[in-house]
Design goal:
The chain has helices spanning 7-15, 32-44, 72-81, 92-95, 114-117, 121-136, 148-160, 190-195, 197-211, 217-228; strands spanning 2-4, 21-26, 47-52, 86-88, 140-144, 166-170, 232-239, 255-264, 267-276. It is of the alpha/beta class. The protein is globular. Bound molecules: adenosine monophosphate (AMP). Residues 26-27, 33-34, 36-37, 143-144, 146-147, 170, 172-173, 180-183 line the site of adenosine monophosphate (AMP).
Length: 287
């Protein structure tokens, strides 16, 4: 595996990479969820670049930018083991040599759910993803369904700006008890870790009720908030995966997501569970 820390180094390595080239953008502190994206990229492309960059633009004031977990040696070992070709690990000044003047700003996709709770988060995500795509010029880029709203923003970024890259979405990797793997899980104390899967269980209960045809989401949300305890619910919503506008009335015969965030102590967990709602029962016909 070769490591590039500057844009110039990455570009000169990229020139000679056999295509198609895959990019897997990460913030490091890698775990089996990241590894699943890398494995898929390895299976589908001739060259794999993994970027590791804790992007300050996507952290709001008061979030965990300063203490975000970093494990560069373990990360490099994991990526070597997955036969990654190139690790791109730029510094902050390499990615932002001057204060960023031009941003990519999602509009309605960032209005709900994570958007209002993390000011400028999706603007930071869309901007850094565009920069990484421009530097690495992959044919395919791999993103996890765990960050479902981020995935929607990236898909729309590529469509709206006519970018020549396929976005590949990858299923959420979970612990045996349902907790979605996350770099932030290493913040959890023993008690917090035991309670953490309640977020998944509560969202799965909403998704399962939707699959069986229930549509009264407000009752489902009240039950979900109770089921999450002792986690403190930040929000729960049911959305279309490409819109992220909370639905009051969930339409039949549709793909939707039950999404939510909850606090285990000061650690904020997010998760998403898919559901396909049933067709409306056909009218009974007599004779
Ligand atoms: P992060 O390093 O948290 O920014 O994540 C980098 C990529 O890995 C994003 O596309 C995430 O959605 C994806 N990812 C993180 N955790 C998981 C997981 N448990 N399962 C699948 N993908 C994940």
């Amino acid at each position: 595996m070769r490591t590039a820390v500057t844009v110039a180094e990455l570009r000169s390595i990229r020139e000679r990479l056999p295509e198609p080239v895959a990019l897997v953008p990460t913030m490091g502190a890698l775990h089996a969820g990241h590894a699943s994206l890398v494995r898929r990229a390895r299976a589908e492309c001739r060259s794999v670049i993994v970027s590791s960059f804790v992007n300050p633009l996507q952290f709001a004031a008061g979030e965990d930018l300063g203490r975000y977990p970093r494990s560069p040696q373990d990360d490099a070992r994991l990526l070597e083991g997955e036969a990654v070709d190139v690790l791109f690990a730029p510094s902050e000044t390499e990615m932002y040599p001057r204060p960023q003047e031009i941003f990519v700003q999602p509009l309605t996709l960032g209005e709900f759910c994570e958007g209002p709770r993390r000011p400028d988060h999706f603007r930071g995500v869309a901007t850094v993803v565009l920069k990484l795509l421009n530097v690495c010029r992959p044919q395919q880029a791999y993103f996890g369904e765990k960050d479902a709203q981020q995935l929607a923003v990236v898909q729309r970024l590529v469509a709206d700006l006519h970018l020549e890259v396929d976005i590949v979405s990858c299923p959420i990797v979970r612990e045996a008890d349902g907790l979605a793997l996350s770099s932030r899980n290493r913040y959890l104390s023993g008690d917090e870790r035991s309670a953490a899967p309640n977020l998944y269980r509560a969202l799965e209960a909403i998704a399962s009720a939707l699959r069986s045809g229930q549509r009264d989401v407000n009752r489902l949300f009240a039950e979900a908030r109770t089921a999450m305890k002792p986690l403190r619910c930040d929000y729960v919503a049911v959305v279309r995966p490409d819109e992220f506008r909370p639905l009051d009335d969930v339409p039949p015969d549709s793909d939707v997501l039950a999404v939510g965030a909850a606090f285990a102590g000061v650690t904020r967990l997010i998760d998403a569970v898919k559901a396909r709602t049933p067709k409306r029962p056909t009218d009974e016909r007599i004779g």
